[in-house]
Design brief:
Helix 5 links the parallel strand 4 and strand 5. By secondary structure, the protein is α/β, with parallel strands linked by helices.
Length: 211
């Protein structure tokens, strides 16, 4: 993990962290996460990485619905990771949570069949986004896939602006897809858009080229 590197907490501010999971349920994100999993087409024995896992909701859901896949979550926020670990323990699920940054993933090249990112990318500073996508590309196996969920079209709903203030870097769909392609990901595209109380969210996907 890069010494001194900063990050935006999952809920925008540490004070909001206890409210993060209830807010996500209220805003309709549970349905969105299930849709993201359907999009990824997980298979038995897949190795899965959740980048920017926050409080572990998606990672725990993956393991609960697909107990035969190996799930790792990574996030720079120790407070969110502590909640993720408690959540997994309560559910009696075996998965791993590591602390680290998305632009320097502490994993070997080609380690994962699927990489997920859910409502994380708008937290990343604009200048760091190419490195994040390049490192996701690096850790994907040939033919592996990125399943991606974030704010749609660079837009921020009123609640998103209230929670995050100015500490976000949302981008247009075209720019985000272009960034994925520039990082060496293939077949990058927006798959769908879903309305939520938080604002519109979009589903994207891309893949690591097959050798």
């Amino acid at each position: 993990m890069t010494s001194g590197q900063t990050y935006l907490p999952a809920a925008g501010h540490d004070i909001f962290l206890p409210l993060y999971d209830p807010m996500m349920r209220l805003f309709g994100f549970q349905r969105a996460l299930r849709r993201l999993l359907d999009q990824a087409e997980l298979r038995p024995n897949h190795a899965v990485l959740d980048v920017g896992c926050g409080t572990g909701t998606l990672a725990v859901l993956i393991k609960r619905l697909h107990p035969d896949v190996d799930v790792v979550g990574i996030d720079p926020d120790p407070k969110a990771l502590a909640r993720a670990q408690r959540k997994a323990a309560r559910a009696r699920l075996s998965l791993r949570f590591d602390r680290g940054f998305a632009d320097a993933l502490p994993f070997a090249d080609g380690a994962f069949d699927r990489v997920f990112s859910s409502m994380m990318f708008h937290h990343v500073h604009k200048e760091d986004k190419p490195r994040v996508l390049a490192d996701i590309r690096r850790v994907l196996k040939p033919g592996g896939r990125l399943a991606f969920l974030d704010l749609a079209g660079g837009s921020l709903g009123m609640l998103a602006r209230l929670i995050h203030a100015t500490h976000v870097s949302a981008e247009s769909d075209d720019r985000l897809v272009k960034r994925m392609r520039e990082a060496g990901l293939a077949d990058a595209k927006r798959v769908a858009v879903q309305a939520t109380l938080f604002g519109p969210i979009a589903f994207y996907e891309a893949s690591a080229p097959s050798r």
